[in-house]
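User: quick one - fold this with 4-nitrophenyl phosphate bound?
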Amino acid sequence: MTKVLMVCLGNICRSPLAEGILKSKLPSSGFKVDSAGTGNYHIGDLPDQRSIDVAKKYGLDITDQRGRQFSVRDFDEFDLIYVMDKSNFENVTKLARNPEDISKVNYILNEIYPNQNHSVPDPYTGGLQGFEATFKMLDEACDVIVKKLLKGNIN
Ligand code: 4NP
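Assistant: Sure. Structure tokens for the protein plus 4-nitrophenyl phosphate:
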């Protein structure tokens, strides 16, 4: 079982989309996909309505998801931890206990643009276009992740 965690700040806009997209591209047997936020503002909340709407437009239902906060135990549970931006990276890696924990963490867009540490911009304060752009970036990154995972090459 390979386990992948998507992380953003609120766990209501970007990482729920990433979770929904990746889940839709992988067989459920053999893979676990989850998401979390580094912040605690939206624990127990549904994804943002705009993420729900964009996901629905592309055929995905993400309304089973509820916000939760990233915790140090996630380093034990997950093999791969994808962050959306630099502050997510810093907030996650500062909880790391050892180099192995840190080695699990990567910027999701590094799957498309290796080693460039590009961010998926936070669409929270913008309009629906930002959520569309977020979906497209994450969809492209998830295609690369899926290819790697299905080849058994997770690094
Ligand atoms: P996300 O967007 O990190 O993509 O879920 C945000 C959602 C909510 C907040 C910040 C970012 N907030 O401050 O409540």
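One thing worth noting: The mean pLDDT is 97.
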